[in-house]
Design goal:
GO terms for molecular function: aminoacyl-tRNA deacylase activity. It comes from Acetobacterium bakii. The protein is α/β, with parallel strands linked by helices and 173 residues long. The chain has one domain: YbaK protein (Alpha-Beta Complex), CATH 3.90.960. The chain has seven helices and ten strands.
């Protein structure tokens, strides 16, 4: 299972115990936010695209949408998501659990600027019922991202609210 691959991946940094598994699905932004009890924009959704002959992942905030013009300017091609039946073979995780950790070789990972307004976010961990809370610096480090990019829209209006949303750790404490 992909979650075990991600758990093994995080073991090298002593973070495997931070992975959260839920009784219910967290396969969509809305379901993940419900399972975590957080705002949907704090879900770090990972989108998989075909760019020329390679697969790339773009991690965005939960409320962000791909801006086709920005995507084309960044990658010199139209935004074309991978077909669902190809995602596992090309990325290493099934749809609903796609994350930027423990992915197949030759998959480039990009982090979108929409994430930078949060102290922590919740990406999936390889299954449709898992997540991990990471700071933005941790997400950058553990995802082995290629670069920060700006290819999204519709998130700027949520920026003001982001500063007032506590992390899960703060909520529990």
């Amino acid at each position: 299972m992909a979650i075990e691959k991600v758990r093994d991946y995080f073991t090298q940094w002593g973070l495997a115990e931070k992975i959260l598994e839920f009784e219910t699905s967290s396969a969509t932004v809305e379901l993940a936010a419900q399972a975590l009890g957080c705002a949907p924009e704090r879900i770090a959704k990972t989108l998989s695209f075909q760019v020329d002959d390679r697969c790339i992942l773009v991690v965005t905030a939960g409320d962000a949408k791909i801006n086709n013009a920005k995507f084309k300017a960044q990658f010199h091609t139209k935004a074309k998501m991978l077909a669902a039946e190809k995602v596992n073979d090309l990325v290493g995780h099934d749809v609903g659990g796609v994350c930027p950790f423990a992915v197949n070789d030759n998959v480039a990972i990009y982090l979108d600027a929409s994430l930078k307004r949060f102290e922590t976010v919740f990406p999936a961990c390889g299954s449709g019922n898992s997540a991990i809370e990471l700071s933005i610096d941790e997400l950058e480090k553990y995802s082995n991202s290629t670069d920060w990019i700006d290819v999204c829209k519709n998130w700027e209006t949520s920026t003001v609210l982001a500063a007032s949303i506590p992390s899960l750790a703060e909520t529990i404490a």
